[in-house]
Specification:
1 helix, 3-stranded antiparallel sheet, two-stranded antiparallel sheet, mainly beta, 32% strand, 7 strands
């Protein structure tokens, strides 16, 4: 599994403390299990990197701000 899971935990965003729902407006780390971050906050803080591919769709790499784990993001 990638960095962020497909279940929908809710909580306060790691950066802005706003309501975050994983899979809707946010993502959560499957490594440390307790970090939920808005995808916009990930982008603003430089924790997303788009990797382009010619044949397959682009992959989004994300870094968890809490534990530093890097993996793929389901959607951003």
């Amino acid at each position: 599994m990638g960095l962020f899971g497909s279940s929908n935990p809710t909580g306060a965003c790691y950066f802005c403390d706003g309501k975050a729902v994983s899979g809707e407006n946010a993502a959560h780390c499957t490594n440390c299990k307790n970090c939920i971050v808005h995808t916009d906050c990930l982008k603003r803080n430089g924790l997303l990197k788009k990797e382009g591919h010619l044949i397959r769709s682009d992959k989004i790499k994300a870094k968890c701000p809490a534990c530093g784990h890097v993996g793929t993001l389901a959607r951003a």
